[in-house]
Amino acid sequence: MPLFRTRALVLKVHYLSDTDKLVTFFTERYGKVKAVAKGARRLKSRYGASLEPLTLVSLIYFGKEHQDLFRVNQCDIVSFHQEIRDSLDTFFYALYFIELLDSLTAEGHCDTEVFAFATASLEALNPEQNPELLCRIFELRLLSLLGYRPRLEQCVKCRKFPRSHWVGFSYNSQGIFCAPCLEGNPVEARIKLGTLQYLKRLLTHDLQRWTRLKIPKDTEQELEQFTHRLVLARLGRELKSYPLLKQMTQST
Ligand SMILES: [Zn+2]
């Protein structure tokens, strides 16, 4: 039976029995993979803390290709991301990141770019900085990398660049409508042209320098509403980690 070796991010862990865990990984070389870790629930498990969500691991697993469930052979911690876990703020954002990644991806589609982006985003979380803008970058870029980039440049109907002070946005068409084209094309949201420029910047801004982005507070809220609806339109449901994240950000 073939062995697969790869770095991986632990996304989710379920208890399968009194002794075993079912672990969802996002791997660098094989995309999302589910694998059973035999004996992982035992007190003296050889996996130690390596199967905790958020952990970056060096993974060896086996099984037949194209089958649903694999078996974990070996799993060693590359980074436990202790600094993220030490702050409730970064911890909740990180949980949201990995739940979003898990929800938007299917098993068995290799995507090294998504893996690199997800791990870099976790590393960019910093307890000293409010992670809201990083979260916006994460949502928009992840959607784009997976082929769901919203069309923000030209009106999806007439292909012209918008000239009015605001544009309409249709979550159904995943794109903007200029003011003259709105007639007969109901849209769910209106976006100010200034906010649209910020959205475009978030899509291209250097991830490592995200703390240099300066966005007015009210625009930040608009951006949050926009990306949240974009995610909802794609998934058709709310993520479990989202209300927790909102609760935490509103109480601080
Ligand atoms: Zn138009």
From TrEMBL:
This is DNA repair protein RecO. The keyword DNA damage applies. NCBIfam families: reco. InterPro entries: ARFGAP/RecO, DNA_rep/recomb_RecO_N, NA-bd_OB-fold, RecO, RecO_C. It comes from Candidatus Nitronauta litoralis. Keywords: DNA damage, DNA recombination, DNA repair. HAMAP family: RecO. GO terms for cellular component: bacterial nucleoid. It holds the Pfam family RecO_N. GO terms for biological process: DNA recombination; double-strand break repair. Involved in DNA repair and RecF pathway recombination. The gene is recO. Residues 1-79 form the DNA replication/recombination mediator RecO N-terminal domain. SUPFAM superfamilies: ArfGap/RecO-like zinc finger, Nucleic acid-binding proteins. Belongs to the RecO family.
